[in-house]
């Protein structure tokens, strides 16, 4: 579903990982997950406290899912029986894909928040494939929860919103824009902790007001100014774009389907362009409380300048219903 497309030149200033930081080798089981004949792999240490994990201690349990760039496996640490998620991304020769991978590695090495899925280690193969050893979120994604348990009540949505906003507040204060907030990138565990995952199309801003000129991410959840940057002068505030995507995601949890289209309609690019950029601001579902309506309005202003920041939204009265 993800549309990952570079439209303008990427302003990429991220260093490659230091060679001296790479050390582990993959056992055959993990190498098999890489779908490659070579078994030689190396590890790039993250800022996580669990960086001493050796790849040879891991065994593959099952496939958790497939995404745009690769496959996610459940793996088990043989000695401690701890379960992790291993996301294997094919870093093929395409320079755009490799740039995105190195950007994801750089962001994951920097982030350390209870509201962002923890990355314990990063393994790299000579073929260019890269595997991210991540905290395992045992209840899947918000999308799987929506499908298995049905729509969310307002207090549950407030609970989700508070946690994602804490994560966004952390990222934005570190000048990181996620750019792909959507139900499948928000992972849940059985404690109902919700964490932000998947930094494949994220960007570190070099200055606070740096322009965000690339066109990447999943277009269904993109803000109007991100979908059609030319109409908005080419430069826009990517932090506000993440807030739009969060508003849309929360609406989806309430309504049970993608909110900007009738249930069952597949979102194609042209329909989305008309709806998001030229349509009226989204109309909110019947029966929502005043607080929830006001909260969604703060997230989904078509004018990005009027949208609230993550820090402001954390003070919104709607979140009081999250006990
Ligand atoms: P996209 O490529 O558009 O981001 P996606 O989010 O579904 O799509 P991935 O991020 O590769 O793709 O993840 C694939 C699936 O793997 C997810 O939908 C989720 O079910 C599962 N998954 C990913 N990370 C974890 C994790 N840390 N713990 C548990 N399951 C995970
Ligand atoms: Mg994803």
Automatic annotation (TrEMBL):
Entry keywords, A to Z: ATP-binding, Kinase, Nucleotide-binding, Phosphoprotein, Serine/threonine-protein kinase, Transferase
Listed transmembrane segments: none
Q: Which SUPFAM superfamilies would you find in this protein's record?
A: Protein kinase-like (PK-like)
Which residues are involved in binding ATP?
87
Name the Enzyme Commission number(s) assigned to this protein: 2.7.12.2
Q: Which reaction does it catalyse?
A: L-threonyl-[protein] + ATP = O-phospho-L-threonyl-[protein] + ADP + H(+); L-tyrosyl-[protein] + ATP = O-phospho-L-tyrosyl-[protein] + ADP + H(+); L-seryl-[protein] + ATP = O-phospho-L-seryl-[protein] + ADP + H(+)
Map out region (Disordered) in residue numbers.
29-51
Record InterPro entries: Kinase-like_dom_sf (IPR011009), Prot_kinase_dom (IPR000719), Protein_kinase_ATP_BS (IPR017441), Ser-Thr/Tyr_kinase_cat_dom (IPR001245), Ser/Thr_kinase_AS (IPR008271)
The organism sits in which domain of life? Eukaryota
Q: Does the keyword Transcription regulation apply?
A: no
Name any Gene Ontology BP term: response to other organism
Name by which UniProt lists this protein: mitogen-activated protein kinase kinase
Q: Which organism is it from?
A: Rhamnella rubrinervis
